[in-house]
Amino acid sequence: MKNIIQASLITTFRCNAKCNMCNIWKYPTKPSEEIDPKYYAKLPDGLRINITGGEPTLREDIDEIFRILYPKASLLELSTNGFYTDKIVHLAEKYPNILIRVSLEGLPAMNDYKRGTHDGFDHALRTMLELRKTKCKNIGFSVVISEDNYKDLLHLYELCSSLGVELGNSVVHNSWYFHKEDNATEGKGALEEHEKFVSALLQSERRGLKNKLKDYGRAYFNKSIHQRLRGDNPGYRPHCGALKDFFFIDPYGNVTPCNGSKEEWILGNIIESDFDDIMHSAKAREIEERISTCQRNCAFIVTERHDMLRRPWVPIKWVVDNKLRLMRGNRIQF
Asked: Which of 6, 119, 146, 243 fits 48 for a cystine, CB–CB 3.0-4.6 Å?
């Protein structure tokens, strides 16, 4: 295991959903404004690359994006709401070693309420069932925990376990990316249900040691999310890895350290400049200073992932201690 920098490529701001925790759909890009896939060839080899949006499968040239990035990436991911089943399945069959996460915000009623869609759960589930028939095996759902969907969290995990697919999760944020500053970032009501979810992860009943270990790691990822929902003071989580461990590129080609700041911090544009020149520029050094004093207190899973790789004894001890606590009938120590 080694640290691999993650690049999240926001390929479009267009979206066919109208999520109540994200207003990207109110500020769509025009197809003519969106970066030509050829500029992604400027990225260095060996990155972990997440293709996201908006809804990335709205891009007519999504296959070209994958054709360019598939051989370059250490792992190529697709984040999608699962509406366009045929297009997603085509990508899975053509590029079988990719990772695919289909967004769900709860069971059918809650999902459609949160995402502003009609039959969105049906589309997502149909896509997942079709993906299970392909050679692409790194598939699963993902959920954004917020103040009103936490009661469905454990049920989504049980659904994923029964289907034999992954469940990724994050927690709601405010930022320039989502055009939101009014998302509730603490959730007293969510704490009990979230603890049940983490407990289920620590007592994973999945088949195979590898799948169980993934659940244990996911439990540790959720430690910071639980502390954030609880309203803990800053300092409970590892130092932010923006720009060092991960970065974003928006649909216009702008390179930015993260999707959590209030304003977009732009280092440069990959259409106009070489990637290495952007990352070693004076602007990059200036933004590194901003990151070092940032007080946004985001709970990004990617930060926890890199910290686990740097200090593996920390999550191992936490997992073992809390598995023992559960065996004794005690509550998890977050």
From this structure: 6
CA distance linking residue 122 with residue 83, whole number of Å: 9
Measured CA angle at 107 (ends 113, 79), to 5 deg: 80
Q: What are the distances in angstroms from CA 163 to CA 100, 159, 227?
A: 15, 6, 30
Q: Quick one: tokens of 158?
A: 């049980």
Of the chain, the percentage scoring pLDDT greater than 90 comes to 83
Q: What does the alpha-carbon distance between residue 114 and residue 19 come to, in Å, rounded to a whole number?
A: 6
Q: How far is CA 291 from CA 6, 29, 286, in A?
A: 17, 27, 9
Q: Is residue 147 scored above 90 in pLDDT? A: no
> 205-262 pLDDT, tens per residue?
999 999 999 999 999 999 989 988 888 877 777 788 899 999 999 999 999 999 999 9
Give the model confidence (pLDDT) of 316-331 as tens digits. 999 999 999 999 999 9
| Per-residue confidence (pLDDT) for residue 72, from 0 to 100 | 97
pLDDT tens readout for residues 150-162: 999 999 999 999 9
CA dist., res. 2 & res. 308, Å (int)? 10
Distance in angstroms between the alpha carbons of the first and the last residue of the chain: 26
| Cα–Cα distance, 19 to 149 (Å, whole number) | 13
What is the SS3 assignment for the chain? CCCCCEEEEECCCCCCCCCCCCCHHHCCCCHHHCCCHHHHHHCCCCCEEEEECCCHHHCCCHHHHHHHHCCCCCEEEEEECCCCHHHHHHHHHHCCCCEEEEECCCCHHHHHHHHCCCCHHHHHHHHHHHHCCCCCCEEEEEEEECCCCHHHHHHHHHHHHHHCCEEEEEECCCECCCCECCCCCCCCCHHHHHHHHHHHHHCCCCCCHHHHHHHHHHHHHHHHHHHHHHCCCCCCCCCCCECCCEEEECCCCEEECCCCCCCCCCCEECCCCCHHHHHCCHHHHHHHHHHHCCCCCCCCHHHHHHHHHHCCHHHHHHHHHHHHHHHCCCCCCC
